[in-house]
Design goal:
single chain; 16 helices
Length: 572
């Protein structure tokens, strides 16, 4: 129920409370639930008075629609909507009576106006806020699906982005190597100028190694299609429909029937409503969501029929006595639809988040070796080539042609090494390992490490992956030192088989359950690498799974708005 209340709060303060469905609700409620009361009025007279009142009411909400879109602060928008609801509910009975008197039709006693206003307030609050919440959730689902469609299109362009990234990287490396071979070195001034150019080249290579594979608009891919299906129904909390219905009809009951009848009616609402909710939760229906939906709908209609019968037995005049026959099922199904839509929205947002992460990981896997090569090229340009030119200029302020020739030969050898950097495997000695990191932390706190032989082999052959793993382990050990109940940690790195192919699993566990809603810092390196915080018994675990280069098969992303759990879920 809290999720529905939060959705209602967002709808009230979101700036789009009034939509075309607001006016549909205004006329539907005006002509049925809140039609004029006197029994002496004919059906046509009731319709005329209700329609005129609904038109005036709609005019007020048109003004609200214009104003709420102009107000920037959420509290201001919420105050406008709530104030209009209260004022319109209080004034509507007087307006209704004025229209009736102008047409020579009967009106209820003047003493009924306070209770009629309370009835209006309860019914309009439930009807209009519920409508706005459902529309807001449906809009959010559409927007999420639209974003998901675009992300999928970009995900499908990953291969093209990777191809362009690798091509651009090779062009940059080739340009740097060529500049080393052809740079003029006739004087020491030429050497100093080359040193400055090499510094710029090193920055370009390092920036490309750290940057995205391609600009967002560099690869044009046809938009993928995401099927938009109606969100499934989910059972509202037991008794929620009965409570809302009872609150809505209570003001009317106070002026229509006696105290004993009120108590009988409220008890009937609670019992019948709870019975309808519990029938749909029968264990026999748990494996058949479609049957559960049918039973729930039938049970609410039956509940409405029982409430209409009770109203007729209490001498409630026709047609008001049959209002529960339609009002109760509509309210129950609206709550079920609202919960289903909220669930669908949460699923779609998780799916969008997963798609974004998958897209990033696909790009990262495809460019991992190229990034490592670019970084190594940047290190060679900065450390070997630029270092050699700067040191030469310091040692030989008046260099001879023979010395310049010797420098040119040394830089040509560096250029050859840079030229091969994207094709040759990274030397094992240059690949980062976990051993120094574990030794450093082990001197500060107990660290138990288990790195399997298969995982070590993967890390030795993939420098970029080894760096990512070191980042996760470092983050996990830092969290253990800062937040663990016992300052100690267990590190596990192993190669595991998954349905999507082999993966490298990294886990850092520490004693102590994390605080409620604890999350990795948004935008942190660990979060971007796909790490997540888990609770395992009394431990907090930072875990990440990494794809292993060369093991993934190309696949097409498949995303659907069908949700596990079927058409109707019984969890309150």
């Amino acid at each position: 129920m809290r999720t529905l209340l939060r959705a209602a709060g967002r709808a009230v303060s979101g700036g789009r409370f009034v939509t075309r469905w607001t006016f549909v609700t205004v006329f539907a409620v005006s002509l049925t639930v809140l039609a004029p009361l006197p029994a002496a009025m004919s059906v046509g007279e009731r319709a005329i008075v209700a329609s005129v009142t609904a038109l005036v009411f709609s005019g007020a909400w048109i003004a609200v629609a214009l104003l709420e879109r102009a107000i920037a602060h959420p509290r201001g928008r919420a105050s406008l909507v709530a104030g209009t609801l209260v004022v319109a509910a209080v004034l509507r009975p007087s307006l209704q009576d004025a229209v009736s008197l102008a047409g020579g039709m009967p009106v209820p006693p003047a003493g009924d106006i306070p209770l009629r206003a309370a009835t209006n307030l309860a019914v309009w609050a439930v009807a209009l806020i519920g409508t706005a919440a459902l529309v807001d959730i449906a809009r959010a689902i559409r927007e999420t699906n639209s974003l998901l469609t675009r992300v999928l299109a970009q995900w499908d362009g990953s291969a093209e982005r990777v191809r362009r990234y690798v091509a651009d990287a090779r062009a940059d490396v080739r340009a740097v190597a060529e500049s080393l071979r052809t740079a003029p070195m006739e004087t020491v001034a030429d050497v100093r100028s080359l040193a400055a150019d090499l510094r710029a080249h090193a920055h370009v290579l390092a920036d490309r190694a750290a940057g995205p594979p391609a600009p967002e608009d560099a690869v044009v891919v046809p938009l993928a299609s995401v099927s938009a299906r109606r969100p499934p129904l989910r059972l509202p909390p037991v008794g929620a429909t009965a409570v809302l219905y009872g609150l809505s009809v209570l003001p009317y009951a106070l002026r229509s029937v006696g105290p004993i009848e009120i108590v009988e009616g409220l008890l009937t609402v609670v019992l019948v409503g709870a019975g309808a909710d519990l029938i749909a939760r029968s264990s026999a229906l748990r494996r058949s969501p479609r049957a559960r939906a049918v039973v729930f709908a039938a049970a609410t209609v039956l509940a409405g029929a029982v409430l209409a019968t009770v109203a007729w037995a209490q001498a409630v005049p026709f047609p008001l006595c049959v209002v529960p026959l339609a009002a109760y099922p509509v309210l129950a199904l609206a709550l079920a639809a609202g919960r289903g839509a909220l669930h669908a929205l949460r699923v779609e947002r998780r799916r969008l988040s997963t798609a974004i992460a998958d897209r990033g990981r696909a790009d990262d896997l495809g460019t991992r070796r190229t990034r490592a090569g670019l970084q190594r090229a940047a290190d060679l340009v900065h450390g070997d080539a630029q270092g050699a030119t700067v040191l030469f200029a310091l040692r030989h302020p008046d260099a001879t042609p023979a010395q310049l020739t010797e420098l040119r030969t040394e830089l040509a050898a560096v250029a050859d090494e840079i030229q091969r950097v994207l094709d040759a495997p990274v030397p094992a000695s240059d690949s980062p390992t976990l051993a120094p990191l574990l030794r450093a932390w082990g001197s500060a706190m107990p660290v138990e490490a288990h790195v399997t032989a298969a995982a070590s082999a993967v890390l030795r052959n993939d420098r970029a992956l080894a760096g990512d793993v070191s980042e996760i382990v470092s983050e996990g050990l830092l969290n253990a030192a800062k937040h663990a109940r016992v300052r100690a940690a267990r590190v596990e790195v192993r190669r595991v088989a998954t349905a999507a192919g082999p993966r490298l699993r990294v886990r850092v566990a520490s004693t102590g359950v994390p605080a409620a809603r604890a999350r990795l810092r948004p935008g942190s390196r660990a979060e971007r690498l796909g790490a997540r915080l888990l609770t395992a018994g009394d431990d907090t675990v930072l875990e990440a799974l990494f794809a292993i280069a060369g093991t993934d098969r190309p696949s097409r992303a498949v995303v659907s708005t069908e949700h596990s759990g079927g058409a109707l879920h019984g969890r309150a």
